[in-house]
Amino acid sequence: MQLYITSLNSGSNGNCYYIGNDREAILVDAGLSCRETEQRMARLGLSMHKVRAIFVSHEHSDHIRGIPVLAKKYRLPVFITDYTAQYARMDFGNLILIPFEAHEPIEVGGLTVTAFPKLHDAADPHSFVVAYKNLKIGVFTDIGAPCEQLIHYFQQCHAAFLEANYDDEMLQNGYYPYHLKRRISGGKGHLSNKQALAVFETYKPDFMSHVFLSHLSKDNNCPNLVEELFTKYAAGTKVVVASRYKETPVYTLSCSEESQSDEILVSFKPKAVKTEAKDQQLSLFF
């Protein structure tokens, strides 16, 4: 059996990651328009009709702006925490919003999705690990600093979307105002190339086949620079730069273990979602 993964877009202009097997798939975030998501998937030979759910990492618009139309059109449940739903500047209308809790696995057909908290300037931000049989894929972006949980899950992954947002010198010498530079690099913004490389070099498991360098800043990073930097330490892991302008190819991971279920389902524990907005809205866009 096989698992298919791609970044449909990665950056402050929109984020969306596809992970699926032969029968079902999920999207982590939906920051592209419905039409753009459909077009990019079609170019890759992927079908939206295999997508069973959308998982939301946090409420910033580059991660959620496509959800209302996409989820309504394909009748997709949206897994989102209560706080993230409350802080989102978006009308989710009659969409199926399903709260999730950190470290509690959610089964979507043959896929199992586990969330864990991350450091980011948002209401209730989470990263995700998607498992299929004996394979695990991590989606680790929008992280202000590496934490023990990130390291714990990173070491389990056969492939990972790992943020490498900015080069320290480019940010330091760039045109961004001082307060924005502080927010980006201040521990609840984004991972630098140096921080991401430290995680990769120190904790990369021998069986990691792919690393997708993700959420690169348009102004404070360079795809060639970061690809060259990571390739020096790849040791057999394929380094892919996830573009902010187009989809990556679909990459295939193989799994030999036999499936334990023929039924496609999304399993969860229903829970009421609070809809009242809070007084303040956190935002951090790069």
Characterise this structure:
The protein is of the alpha/beta class and 286 residues long. It has a single domain (2-247), classed as 4-Layer Sandwich (Metallo-beta-lactamase, Chain A). 24% of the residues lie in helices and 23% in strands. The chain contains nine helices and 14 strands. The strands form two sheets. Strands 6-5-4-3-2-1-14 form a seven-stranded mixed sheet, covered by helices on one side. Strands 7-8-9-10-11-12-13 form a seven-stranded mixed sheet, covered by helices on one side. Helix 1 (34-43) links the parallel strand 3 (25-28) and strand 4. The longest helix is centred in the C-terminal third of the chain and has 11 residues, at 193-203. The protein is globular, with a radius of gyration of 18 Å. It starts with a strand and ends in a 32-residue tail after the last strand. 47% of the residues are buried.
Can you describe this structure in just a few lines?
The protein is an alpha/beta fold and 286 residues long. The protein is built from nine helices and 14 strands.
* Separation, N- and C-terminal Cα atoms: 38 Å
The portion of residues assigned to helices is: 10-25%
CATH architecture: 4-Layer Sandwich
- Percent strand equals 15-25%
What is the top-level CATH class?
Alpha Beta
Question: Going by CATH, what is the homologous superfamily?
Answer: Ribonuclease Z/Hydroxyacylglutathione hydrolase-like
Are there runs of 5+ residues with pLDDT below 50, and where? 258-264, 267-286
Number of domains: 1
What is the molecular shape? globular
Q: What value does the average pLDDT take?
A: 90
Number of β-strand runs: 14
